[in-house]
Amino acid sequence: MSRDLLFGKTLTELRSIVNDLGLPGFTAAQIADWLYKKDISSIDEMSNLSKNARIILNAHFDFGLTPSSKVQESIDGTKKYLFPAGKHKFIEAAYIPDETRKTLCVSSQVGCKMGCLFCMTGKQGFQANLSAGEIVNQVRSLPEKDDLTNVVYMGMGEPFDNLDEVLKSLEIFTSDWGYGWSPKRITVSTIGIIPAMKRFLDESQCHLAVSLHSPFEEERKKLMPVENVYSLPEVIQTIKNFDFGRQRRISFEYIMFKGINDSPRHVKELAKILNGIRCRINLIRFHPIPNTPLKSSDEKTMEEFMVALNAKGIRTTIRASRGEDIYAACGLLSTKELVKRNGGDF
Questions:
Q1: Would you say residue 206 lies in a domain?
Q2: Is the residue at 303 inside a domain?
Q3: Distance of CA 254 to CAs 71, 91, 159, 293, Å?
Q4: Among 18, 82, 104, 159, which residue's Cβ finds the most Cβ atoms within 10 Å?
Q5: H-helix or E-strand containing 5?
Q6: Which residue ranges in the chain fall short of pLDDT 50?
Q7: Closest Cα to residue 139, out of 177, 182, 208, 186?
Q8: Contact assessment for residue 136 and residue 67, using Cβ atoms and an 8 Å cutoff
Q9: Is 234 annotated as catalytic?
Q10: Which residues of 267-282 are buried (b: 16+ CB within 10 A; e: fewer)?
């Protein structure tokens, strides 16, 4: 049987642990400090804990860090890290450096059950939820961790389909007892699972990104089956009902598909449904995946689409494609294919 892991526990969980083990209450804060503020990798290195406390912790827990097992580097400097996530399971995290930002795109699940037509992760199906520790480990075990400016939950999986563990990971990142990051450094993406989105908005201060991809319900259903459960009008109304204030950002991700969602009528409808929301739209090139009829809009169409939306008062940018040559670009994360290509047993 696998042992429980200390890394990834919240301060509340640590307080419960030390109480159950008969250790002094203040030990919880000491453990949190070692886990998230010190560069250690074993319980024995927690030098301000008594020897007896360390013996007891070692008897019940492993520390819980998992180094990456493989890394690929793109010609543009993007790196894709492969992490084990249980027996014969893997996840990927994409490190994306540019001049002013160093961003890590983390995964929240092994595979995904949402089945979006354009996403490689969805093609491999759902395999497991990641624990908060496995999510935070992608940052903690990153060689470039000290250079990071931002983290985005846009890797494998739907974060709001694993909300409890995602919220715990966000608590670790942003709490004073954890990494102490500003919530403004973190963006969590969703396809629009409304009950979980409401909880996220109430319980976290991190930025929200919504995968939109079409302003028309019937069109969106063909791309994203979730539309059959949580309709776009309901998603938009939920956002309009929430007070984001001036410090919190809402953005919409919009992958552009040739002849499907890139016409002037889409611009007009986007401006209509997003009216009254202070937001931005990120236009994204589609990167072809096997067994899909979809093709990306050309550069001219994307430029015209961006200009038209900006003219209607919606701040719109075209996201630069990064790491496409190592399958690290948007929608391409899929360890099943990566491990197969490298002769592994998935």
A1: yes
A2: yes
A3: 28, 24, 18, 18
A4: 159
A5: strand 4-5
A6: 345-346
A7: 186
A8: no
A9: no
A10: bebbbebbeeeebebb
Bridging pattern class, strands 61-62 and 70-73: unpaired
| pLDDT at site 341 | 57
Name the active-site residue from 13, 73, 92, 158.
92
Active site residue 299: no
Structure tokens at 236: 């938009």
Strands 102-105, 90-97: pairing is antiparallel
Number of domains comprising the chain = 2
pLDDT digits (tens, 9 = 90+) for 167-189: 999 999 999 999 999 999 999 99
Asked whether residue 346 is domain-assigned, the answer is no
Q: Per DSSP, what are the bridge partners of residue 282?
A: 253, 317
Inter-helix orientation angle 132-140/163-174, to 10°: 40
> 26 is in which domain, residue-wise?
4-62
Pair (21, 136) in one structural domain: no
Distance CA 319, CA 317 (A): 6
Q: Is 156 helix (H, G, I), strand (E, B) or coil?
A: coil
Active-site position among 105, 112, 279, 330: 330
Q: Indicate whether 58 and 83 sit together in one domain.
A: no
The pair of three-digit structure tokens given for residue 17, joined into one six-digit string: 């642990």
